[in-house]
Structures are given as structure tokens and as C-alpha cells.
Amino acid sequence: MNDAASPAPTAQAVAFGVLAVLGAVVFGTSFGYGILGDEGRVGPGLLPMVTGLLLLLLGGGQLLVRLRRTGGVTEPREPDAGVDVFGRTESQRVRQLWTVVVATPVAVLLVPLLGFLPALGVLVLFIAAVVERRPPLVALAIAAVAIAAGYGVFMEFLDVPLPTGAVGDLLGW
């Protein structure tokens, strides 16, 4: 694998450090919005709190990994060091990432037409079937679980009405 194609470990460490700090700021400011509302309902600060905490933990964890890699003696690279446990090369992972980055706004654009949950299902189905190349039944099962989880979180737990889209309006959802 060509080291020139991937960012330097120092640049990666800086990026993850910035993400960790951003997560800490979001986590800290979320308490000002209220974590719990009336009657123990979810308040407007819960989602930023969880998101900030996850960003802080994941960014901080990756920062520590990068800092440990840059310090000390560098180990000689093995020929397959750029291949992950699924056998994907660095370029394949980057291509998959960009495919998801492009597919996500397309799914967002589908929300007014299909509604939130169907658009989420289409996105997850696309990622599972096309990007991750899962068998069709497995991809459908993953999409169904994502739709059920989205419904459970937004409609049942948070009691947030979701956009039904033009199709949902036609069907009376």
C-alpha cells in the first residue's frame, strides 16, 4: 500500500483531537437544553448529549490509537498491512465510504417523496446490498431492523412525528 495515499498519522491525530474536543463541547452544552422534560419525557438536550458523548469517546479513542502509533519505534510494514479483516484494501474502503457519503444525501432527498422510514430503509438496503455486498435476504433483514429501530426510537420512545412523504400522504399514513 502506498503511504502517500493516506493522511500522515499526525494529521489523523489532529483530526481526531478536533472531533473529540467538538464532542466534549456538544456534550457539555447539551445540559443547558435539559436532558429530561416534563413528566420524565425526553428533553431537547438528550440527543446532543448522546451524540456529543459518542463523538468524544470515539474521537478520543481514535486519537489515543494514533498517538500510540506515532510514538516509539515504527514497525516494518507487512505486504498486506493495508488489508482489513474483510479483505478490503485501503482504496476499496475509501470507495465504499464515498459511496455512502453520496448515497446519504440522495436518501435525504427521497424523504419528501417516500417519507423518513422508507427512505431510511432504502439507504440501509443500498448500503447492505451494494456497498457491503450482503446476500439479498440478509440485506432486507438489516433494512427491516433499521426501519423497526427508527420507528421504535422516533415514534415510540421520543414520540416525534416523522415525515410521511408524498407516498405516505397518498396512502393516508
TrEMBL record:
InterPro entries: DUF1468. It comes from the Bacteria. The chain crosses the membrane at residues 12-33, 45-65, 97-130, 137-154. The keyword Iron does not apply. This is DUF1468 domain-containing protein. Keywords: Membrane, Transmembrane, Transmembrane helix. Residues 16-163 form the DUF1468 domain.
